[in-house]
Backbone:
């Protein structure tokens, strides 16, 4: 049984959303996004949503695939898992955490609030998604545009380091 998908283990936090968190579950956000984009809510998509929603750590496509087969008893091929994950990235429902490339659910639609940073502990692999005010991110993007004559159209900030528990 894949514990990442079925049990909370306090390794992934959305507690720092502040006023930007709309209180909706990942599942509710995913259903809204799929309906808005005319995507059917299939058994496979629902299972991937549940797997991501129930996980407190970023998940690899392989761990999602294994969980769908073994725990949810959904017959699906790995290519379909990748396609579902790509669709969820396009819908701005999930993030890819690097360097692992694993996937993390976002509990606020990125199009509604793209001003967040992923904090990734390199020791215990705890991941936190924190939201910043628009002024903070805007000044960074404006600086990049001015200094490098580069027009940002999308961004994903991730900071790797050591969490409070690992620094003790």
Residues:
């Amino acid at each position: 049984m894949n514990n990442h998908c079925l049990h909370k283990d306090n390794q992934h936090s959305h507690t720092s959303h502040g006023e930007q968190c709309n209180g909706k579950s990942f599942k509710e956000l995913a259903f809204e996004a799929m309906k808005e984009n005319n995507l059917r809510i299939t058994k496979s998509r629902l299972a991937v949503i549940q797997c991501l929603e129930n996980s407190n750590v970023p998940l690899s496509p392989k761990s999602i695939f294994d969980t769908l087969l073994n725990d949810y008893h959904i017959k699906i091929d790995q290519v379909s898992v990748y396609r579902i994950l790509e669709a969820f990235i396009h819908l701005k429902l999930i993030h890819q955490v690097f360097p692992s490339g694993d996937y993390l659910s976002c509990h606020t639609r990125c199009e509604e609030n793209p001003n967040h940073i992923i904090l990734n502990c390199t020791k215990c692999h705890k991941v936190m998604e924190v939201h910043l005010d628009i002024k903070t991110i805007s000044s960074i993007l404006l600086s990049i545009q001015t200094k490098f004559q580069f027009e940002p159209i999308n961004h994903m900030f991730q900071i790797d380091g050591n969490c409070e528990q690992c620094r003790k």
